Amino acid sequence: MDCPTPKKPMTKTEMIVALAESTGLTKKDVVSLFDELAKLIGKELGEEGAGVCNISNLLRIKVVRKPATAERKGINPFTKEETVFKAKPAKNVVKLVPLRGLKELV
Question: What are the residues whose beta carbons fall under 8 Å from the beta carbon of 68, sequence distance 6 or more?
Fold first, then answer.
């Protein structure tokens, strides 16, 4: 039995061409739309924004603050030797949450 090869995801160029054809916009217009959308999302997630951005009933993008972790001792699961895990600084992590519109498409 041959396994079917998985379909490759669209490249950025293929997506721009497909959107330009389906909407009647030029490729340049679609590219500028994506650029402005990226700026808007960055503004909403940044310090001056709310930290959450909803995209038209498809996705909720939010920033979650991960606290710092202290250095700790533990056991390496592969070698069973005791080791010290390094401390990690606090960081911001971007989370994507699918909304109802996206769930209904799949």
Answer: 87, 88, 89, 90
pLDDT, tens digit, 9 for 90 and up, residues 51-91: 899 998 899 999 999 999 999 999 988 999 999 999 999 99
Is residue 56 within 8 A of residue 44, CB to CB? The reply is: no
Both tokens of 32, joined, read: 């500028």
Residue-range domains of the chain with CATH: 11-49 (no CATH), 50-106 (4.10.520.10)
Tell me how far apart the alpha carbons of residues 17 and 13 are, in angstroms, rounded to a whole number.
Answer: 6
Residue ranges of alpha helices (H) inside 1-106 are: 12-23, 27-45, 100-105
CA dist 26 and 18 (Å) reads 11
Q: Between helices 27-45 and 12-23, what is the axis angle to 10°?
A: 110
The pTM of this model reads 0.72
